[in-house]
Amino acid sequence: MSAQSVRPSTGAPEGAPGAARIAVLGAGSWGTTFAKVLGDAAVASGAPAEIVLWARREEIAREITERRTNSTYLGDIVLPPGIRATTDVAEAVTGAEVVVLAVPAQSLRSHLAAVGAALGERAVLVSLIKGLERGSDMRMSEVIIEELGVGADRVAVVSGPNLAMEIARQEPTASVVACEDAAVAERVAALCNNPYFRPYTNTDVVGVEIAGIVKNVIALAVGICDGQRLGDNSKASVITRGLAETTRLATVLGGRLETFSGLAGLGDLVATCASPLSRNRTAGRLLGDGLSADEVTAELTQTAEGMKSGSAVVDLARRHGVEMPISEAVVAVLDGSLAVDRIATLLLARDLKPEGK
Questions:
Q1: What is the DSSP string of 228-239?
Q2: Which of 143, 172, 203 is a domain's end point?
Q3: By residue range, what is the domain housing residue 43?
Q4: 268 found inside a domain
Q5: 353 annotated ligand binder
Q6: pLDDT digits (tens, 9 = 90+) for 308-322
Q7: Is 337 flagged in the annotation as binding?
Q8: DSSP state of 195
Q9: pTM of the full structure
Q10: Interatomic CA distance for residues 226 and 289, integer angstroms
Q11: Catalytic residues, which ones?
Q12: What would the pLDDT profile of 11-53 be if each residue is shown by its tens digit?
């Protein structure tokens, strides 16, 4: 029996009257965890839901469906009833009211053709992806809108201090659901609201996305500080000035200043820069230890989005005349044009000026 045809033995019956059908594309740590969040929210609310995870690898799809675990990414954590998996994108998306995208940023566009072929006319797209597309410098919501020809009112983004393993262990956290249409943001928030995951809504899609994108680059810088054995003063300075340069870029692009004092801004930045669970901080530490970008990629089991999106962040900033010295220094280390032991002098390399600028 193929992974596509396996059905869960427990949970809401497939196609049950009133059951919301939700597709989650990407069965890595965050995609699987968010499926769990949705499943637990359905149980908590008493509203039946059928959640279909798309996995690239058949063995992962089979394990999720048959055992309700994804040991590759979440260990022995058990997923709630109502979740099954498939390796067929069309099967996952067909009939879904909400399609959640949790694939690597640089491969999103290549997946969207299959999504579009099966997408319902009123389905809402939700991006969990924190990256910019290299070459176009587009945010993920922009890629979705362009590739699928949908309106911005059908595209939401979820961002915040959301370290997947902590959430999978049901450690309390809050997040932000952003959409230009407040009603759509509220609908998505209702689907993922449960006792340990508290979503807030926002209409500042630009600000929320840029905050989630650039914080990964700043976390690389903090990790580099760790690898270079720099102290807490250095890391605190990088985090604070990193937030400032993130805010400069976002506001030029139309983001709202208040977003950056909230969960999607400061909250996500602190979690990603401080936690040993952060892939980007870990990648930065390996860079700081002297590994090349290729060696770091080989060492990691999951994508560190900051390594992929950093060059696009810097390119976007240059096109808009925004100074981002921390991001510039990180990208220079990644592309090999700057020796990592020289980065300390460049992380805060700006002309003297008032702190708020």
A1: TT--HHHHHHHH
A2: 203
A3: 3-203
A4: yes
A5: no
A6: 999 999 999 999 999
A7: no
A8: T
A9: 0.89
A10: 8
A11: 215
A12: 333 444 467 899 999 999 999 999 999 999 999 999 889 999 9
